[in-house]
Amino acid sequence: MSELILGIESSCDETSVAVVKDGKTILSNIVASQIKSHQRFGGVVPEVASRHHVEQITYCIEEALQVAEVRKTDLTAVAVTYGPGLVGALLIGVQAAKAFAWANQLPLIPVNHMAGHIYAACFEQDLQFPLLALVVSGGHTELVYMKEDASYKVIGETRDDAAGEAYDKVGRVMGLSYPGGKEIDRLAHLGEDRYQFPRAMLHEDNLDFSFSGLKSAFINLDHNAKQRGETLSQEDLATSFQASVVEVLVTKTIRAAKNYPVKQLVVAGGVAANQGLREMMQQKVEEQLPETDLIIPSLRLCGDNAAMIAAAGHVEFAQNKLASLGLNACPSLSF
Ligand code: KG4
Ligand code: ZN
């Protein structure tokens, strides 16, 4: 009989519920985005996010089952994101998952959101270990070494802002609507790399990142230009900013893969949707790591979604890592 896992994700501003068969096949993946409600504030407002999750979660569960054509009694287990993320937002998903698991007598699988991002790659091809993952999202920038399924060792991480956070802050300075990442990526393909932005920690002998200096350099350039009454080209700014982020992410990831030889390299998280990053990573891996398989999830699976949570839940379930109904949200959960 097939294994059917109901995945639930509510760590930030997307309420998502999915049904995944045998950890490989997405039968449904409902994503209710709240972006429009947060745009007028220029970022995610935690209290607004929680309220939306409360409104959406039961509809999303019903819809995920309907689209998958699965009855509650067919399900094997419920997997839920319990961290990291916004505490109020996480609690809605955790509560819904616990209630659903209890009412339907199903095992409850606690899932780390970042592990979910990595396992989104398993919908592209079977994962092989050892594996190295660059996880880049709005809240995190991490290099994670996995010697086997569900084993995570952080070998590098940002010392300040996450890459996605830098994109969104720069987007705000440019007057773009939240989240700015996607629009900067589009503009970056139209301009020239004419501003020399810093590449922090590029030549340091470690696998860490730093993006706050880049953000400040961008803000200063913009501020000084405005003081002089000059208007800088949005396209050139985007191209130069993106060139800096992508060069640092790709260089450090390739260096990590040389220090920690792996069979596969995964790039995951919201920023993995970035075209510039996808192209440069592809090119450098082909040139410098011809033996390594590069896997980047399809665009719809880079952002937050519950199919990736069900996929990570599948490997946790195989190792019998279950939670009791006492499971709580863990906003600063790490690997
Ligand atoms: O993984 P995600 O959906 O949520 C978190 O777990 O944080 O990532 C959201 C982040 C945002 O910062 C957003 O601007 C960024 O991913 N993002 C992008 C692109 N699409 C989304 N950043 C750069 N280029 C993109 N195409
Ligand atoms: Zn995420």
From TrEMBL:
Protein name as annotated: tRNA N6-adenosine threonylcarbamoyltransferase
Lineage start: Bacteria, Bacillati, Bacillota, Bacilli, Lactobacillales
Single annotated GO MF: tRNA N(6)-L-threonylcarbamoyladenine synthase activity
Main location: cytoplasm
Pfam families for the chain: TsaD
InterPro entries in alphabetical order: ATPase_NBD, Gcp-like_dom, KAE1/TsaD, TsaD
Cellular component annotations (GO), alphabetically ordered: cytoplasm
Cofactor(s), names only, from the UniProt record: Fe(2+)
Gene that this polypeptide is encoded by: gcp
Protein family according to the UniProt entry: Belongs to the KAE1 / TsaD family.
